[in-house]
Design brief:
Blueprint: H1 4-9, E1 51-52, E2 61-62, E3 70-71, E4 77-78
Antiparallel strand pairs: 1-2, 3-4
Amino acid sequence: MSSPQDLKTAPKPMASVAVKAPEKPAGTSPNAFGRPGTSPGTTSVVASTPVVSKTPVAQVTTPSPAVAVTAAAGGVPHLARCNLMGAELSGASMPGAKFTGSELRGTQLNRADLTGADFAGANAQQSSMVGANLERANLERCVLRYADLREARMKQANVAGADFWRATLINTDIRHAVGLEQARLDGADLSETNLGGAQIAGGTLRFTTLRGASCVEANLSRANLEGADGHRADFSDAVLSGAVLEKAKLGEASMLRVKLDGARLRGAHLVQVKLQSAQADGADFESADLTDANLSEASLQRARFTGANLRGANLTMANMTGAFLEGANLWRSNLRGAIVKDAILRDAKLTRAQLTDVDLSGSKLEGADLRRADLAKADLSGTDLWRANLADANLAGAKLAGSSIRGALNIRDANLAGTDLVEISLEGAELQGVNLRGANLTGANLENADLTGADLRDCTLTNARLKGANLRKTDLTGANLENTDLRHVLNLKEARIRSVRFVNANLAGVQLQSADLSGSDLSGVALRRSSLELCNFTGAKLVDADLSGSNVQGTVLVDADLTGANLRDVVHFTDADLRGSRLTRVDMSGANLSQVKNLTEAHDLSGIVLRGADLRGARLSSARLSGADLAGADLHEADLENSNLEKANLSDADMWNAKLAGANLGSANLTGADLKQANLRNSDLTGAIVANVNFTGADTSGVKGIAAS
């Protein structure tokens, strides 16, 4: 062994180290590592091969080249710029030790007491400090790559500039370390580690493992956590504003009330993440996977979710004003009560989404897939639904005022019951089977829309535009069509239009074959040249209605009120049923009534105008035709027995072979009438004008009061 003098004169490179101990009684002086020594004074170790010091607590291995260790007065080891690579120092007590600039690669310091030790600039790659006490230690600029620091205590340790690349820090107490924001934690394993309240603003944690870690109230604003694995980590109340979390794995993480304003989470894995009440305004979630995530009551204003997967996500009461959701997948997501005003939802998939009470006003929904979505009571005012698919969607009670569904791909079987659709544009929309019951369509544009089989019960269509609309088999029971122009409706065949208010509506030329208009109010309605075959007008009100030139073959007008109606030149009255109808002052001039069913059972034909009407063989026995105008009418072989024709105008009427037995023709005008072979037995012609009447072959037995003009 070399003498002390030799060591003092030797050079001082890292390979030569001297150990000085304070003078103590022989056999009791501590060595440089706080263990009992065998002799006082200076100990030197010079070896070309590792030499192990003999101690009952721990082995100290000094590798080649020669190592000399110097301890200052008080026993604080001075190991600055030493080569301790691979040394075994586990369990050593070295509080305040100086390792500045030393080589500690692979050194074993497990459970060592390194309180206040100085590792500034040291190289501790692949070292092991499991369970070590590093409280108040100085690790500034220390290289700890691949180091194992599991369960180490680092309270108030200075880690500014330290490099923890791929270091293991599982369950390490590092949250109160100083300078964490300046440390490099890329690739480090911080699983189950408590980082609660840690200050890591602007820190680098790229590809760091934080599985199960607690980051509650940690400040990670502007930190780089790209590719980090935080599965089931707790970030509740943490600050991550402006942080980079692109492609981070945060599945099932708890991020309650977290601040993510302006954070970048592109492509992040956020399956089942808990983001309730999170503050994420302006955050970028583009292409992120948020399947089954909980974002209820979160603030996501202007956040970007372009192409993101939000299948089954909970967004109830969230504020997504101005959010970008273009192409996002929101299948079965729940947005009940959310605010999604002025958002971009182009081509978004919202199939079966829960959108009840959602405010979507002003949003862009072009091409959105809303099949079977529940939009009950949603506010869609001013939205653009071009090419949107609303098949089977529920829009009951929704507000669609000012929105544009024109050109929506499919609204078939959608539920729009009770919706506010005032002045909405539904031009050309596919609305087959849609439920619009109770909807307000005042002033709506329904031109060229297909409403086949739609439910329009009790809806308001006042001043609606229906040019070219297909209303076949629609149910308009109780609807209000006041002042509505239906002239150019494609057809209303087989429609159910019971108890509808059509006052002053225009239905000229409309196809209403087999439509059910029973109980409807069609007062003053224009039905000129309309197809009314097999229509049911039972109990309908057609006062002053214009049905001139219409086809009423097989039409049911039972108990209908046609007072003052215009039926001039009506064609094909065959099998029409007028039982109990009121035909007072009706103009049926030129009408063919020869095959009318039960005309005799009409409630009242007083004042009816049937000038030039074809009533050949008509069954009008006991009919009330007082004051009727039948001038020029063809009543050949008509049955008018016991009918009341008092003051009727029958001038130039053809009543050849007609049955008028017991009829009241008092004060009637029969000028020029042809009564050849007519049966007038017991009829009353008191006061009648019979100038130029042809009575040839007529049976006038028992006739009263014949007076020539």
